[in-house]
Amino acid sequence: MLYFAYGSNLNHFQMKRRCKDSIFLKKINLKDFRLTFRSKYRAADIEPKKNSLVPGALFEISKSDEKKLDVYEDFPILYKKYYFYYYGKKVMTYTMVKKSQFRFPTERYLNVVKRGYQDCKLDKKELIRALQI
Question: Are 10 and 113 in contact (CB under 8 A)?
Fold first, then answer.
């Protein structure tokens, strides 16, 4: 199945450790969404926003990888699944259930995300924008 990562799972080392079958396919942008950080975990989330985009990565993952991600993302308590189509192919990602206020991420978490942006060769512009709220 196809999975869209936009937070700490962009980090190739972390993603491989978490999902041993995962294969990084390419970087893509999710249109009409914006990146933010929230909850007591200060983790990445996405929310609908016209004319905005979220840079991320497309991964091929196995069914057992998906089960591991479900546990890590605390599905369905903290995150729920969101599906969209990319060139006719169904893609799964996670979005937070409770849309709480913006919370600046911890330095440790943010460093993992920044490393992921480097791993996937993503433009940091949207990440910087998300942190300037």
Answer: yes
